[in-house]
Amino acid sequence: MKKLIYTFFILILCSDSFAGTLFPKHDINDPKLSKNTVILQCQKSLMYAPRQLEKWCEKAYEMGYWQALEVIGLHTSDGSRYITEAQLHAENGDPDGILALAFAYESGRFVTKNLHKSIALYSQYLNENQGIEEEKMRVIRTHEALYLIYTKLGDFENATKQKRFLDESNYKENKEAILKKQMREAGISIDSEQ
How far is CA 38 from CA 63, 76, 96, 182, in A? Predict the structure, then answer.
């Protein structure tokens, strides 16, 4: 029991030093800060520096990363700005806006859950991006999301159509290959390859 209490206090006392390595100290006013650095600081602040979250995410938003509003919404429990921005982007045909809204309605994040609106948005995304090579993986993931929604709704006819697409695209194999590649790049060994 004493060891447990001791370990707990050590973790509390050292938490700032652990966060320091995961949340590098940057001067938010440094004009040389890249957009990517600001975005990473915004994303990491939710976990490692919540007191700095709003200033980093507002800066990321000012630099053109509208998705920073989602992080602010998660932190403040008010995602209204994020939803408004996603709607604006979706109305302009931005795939990121369409998918953001589709996920929001699917999950009920910041909006009332509405699977039918989610289906309509995912379908809109597929209609506009089906043949675009750069969107290939997101198209396949969208079919997977639709498959799961239709299954939840008991609409097995449409669920079967989505499943057929996934089977024909070798989605499972492609997903596993991408995951293995990402794990190797991150230096994580894969048990089956040892």
Answer: 9, 19, 19, 23
What letter does residue 23 receive in the DSSP assignment? S
Please report, as a single letter, which amino acid is at residue 116: H
What is the per-residue burial (b if ≥16 Cβ within 10 Å, else e) of 129-157? beeeeebeebbbbbbbbbbebbeeeebee
- Specify whether the CB–CB gap between 54 and 78 falls below 8 A: no
Q: 164: which 2 tokens? A: 């057929």
Terminal C-alpha separation, the chain: 38
Q: How buried is 166 (Cβ within 10 angstroms: 0-12 exposed, 13-18 middle, 19+ buried)?
A: middle
Residues 142-184 have pLDDT tens digits of 999 999 999 999 999 999 999 999 988 877 777 777 778 778 8
Cα separation, 116 vs 151, whole angstroms = 13
